[in-house]
Amino acid sequence: MKKPAILGGKPAFEQPLHVGRPNLPNRKVFDKYVDRIFDKRWLTNNGPLVREFQEKLEEFLQVKHCIPICNGTIALEITERALGFVDDVVLPSYTFIATAHSLQWQRIRPVFADIGEYSVTINPRSIKQVLTPNTNGIIGVHVYGHPCDHKAICGISKQHNIRVIYDAAHAFGCEVNGVPIASIGDASIFSFHATKFFHTFEGGIVATNDSSLAREIFLMTNFGFTGNDDVSYLGINGKMTEIAAAMGLSMLDSIESIRSKNLANYQYYKTSLSEIDGLEIIEPPSSLSKNNWQYVIAKLDEKEFGISRDLTVEALKAENIFARRYFYPGCHRLYPYRTCRYKNYSLRNTENLADQVISFPTGQSVNESDIKRIAQLLHLIKLNKAKLQKIDIDYN
Ligand SMILES: *Cc1c(COP(=O)(O)O)cnc(C)c1O
């Protein structure tokens, strides 16, 4: 029998498999858009491709306004500012660090709420517990595309007169109970970073049905200019380039094929991993009526599996499988938040999930046989637990 690579065997994969390896559109389609950029010599500043991309996105996401932006983080920052977020804003700790940084960067205080015991999204009960008299914003994150409990969050927002942004960086092309996910909340932001299901190299958008908010955000992406020599808002450079829009337009052509590929991969993982005790795939909730299947997430129960989550990730890495602990350890345990005195309430569910989670590679460059081999390797790792337990890792 093969020896696990971490114990000196040969790595099972010659070519490494990574979480977040970019999906790519048809090259010929992309090249045609690039030709148009060169023909026109229009590279940025709300060019024709950006405008075409914007219209197609509004149709695809079924939302009144999309404002193309240079990345998801700036999309968050501009939206927070346009909505007047100051003082305290509630968000989950279980998210990518950019959600918290977008606030802190503007000296708005991130107040972390917990996720639910059985969900990966912010728990409305926890939001209520952490509200302060100075809270004037909530950011819900549709983690892994799983929709936040919008009904409950909307109730809190109405009761306390607080506005709501959704960080929908994971939820492009998703629907919640048949409703396009971009149409809930005051505004949603999407990230089109290269590692996302749908991307524009770097990029993002704000989506909203609020026309005056959309106009303000649009002006803020271009320094607040309202005319050649007139500035009406404090703005920043948040513009999307034409080459990014070219990628986005060609990716839109491939999106349904990428979605089906992700779904097929998810199903292979589900079948292969279900035979392994101690590993459990996190399934999407039934409210997620349309999914992009961009993440394959499992929880590893150390007692049942026999080896710690961190050692398992290390053992996979030695085989050239770069699974990720996504989102470990939770924003509240990272700089600069870990020294803040936020902790008069519990983030127990966040910490439990962060300590068990593994994200597996999927997307265009992963296929059925890769997934079967990954499952076999997990069996092999389990079989060698006695030897593996002796390995000391210093993962941080
Ligand atoms: C990727 C991501 C972002 C940041 O987007 P960028 O385009 O990389 O700036 C924000 N929030 C979440 C949840 C993300 O996954």
Question: How does this model look, in words?
Answer:
The protein is α/β, with parallel strands linked by helices and 396 residues long. It folds into two domains: 27-250, Type I PLP-dependent aspartate aminotransferase-like (Major domain) (Aspartate Aminotransferase, domain 2, 3-Layer(aba) Sandwich); 255-388, Aspartate Aminotransferase, domain 1 (Alpha-Beta Complex), CATH 3.90.1150. The protein is built from 13 helices and 17 strands. It has helices at 27-40, 48-61, 72-82, 97-104, 124-130, 150-160, 211-220, 242-273, 302-305, 309-318, 348-354, 368-383, 385-388; strands at residues 17-18, 65-69, 88-92, 109-113, 135-141, 163-167, 175-176, 179-180, 187-191, 204-208, 225-227, 230-231, 279-281, 288-290, 296-300, 321-322, 357-360. A seven-stranded mixed beta sheet has the order 2-10-9-6-5-3-4, sandwiched between helices. A three-stranded antiparallel beta sheet has the order 8-7-14, with no helix packed on it. A three-stranded antiparallel beta sheet has the order 13-15-17. It is globular, with a radius of gyration of 22 Å. The mean pLDDT is 96. Residues 71-73, 95-96, 98-99, 141, 167, 169-170, 191, 193, 204 line the site of pyridoxal-5'-phosphate (PLP).
Outline the secondary-structure elements.
Blueprint: E1 17-18, H1 27-40, H2 48-61, E2 65-69, H3 72-82, E3 88-92, H4 97-104, E4 109-113, H5 124-130, E5 135-141, H6 150-160, E6 163-167, E7 175-176, E8 179-180, E9 187-191, E10 204-208, H7 211-220, E11 225-227, E12 230-231, H8 242-273, E13 279-281, E14 288-290, E15 296-300, H9 302-305, H10 309-318, E16 321-322, H11 348-354, E17 357-360, H12 368-383, H13 385-388
Parallel strand pairs: 1-16, 3-4, 3-5, 5-6, 6-9
Antiparallel strand pairs: 2-10, 7-8, 7-14, 9-10, 11-12, 13-15, 15-17
Helix pairs in contact: 1-8, 2-8, 3-4, 8-12
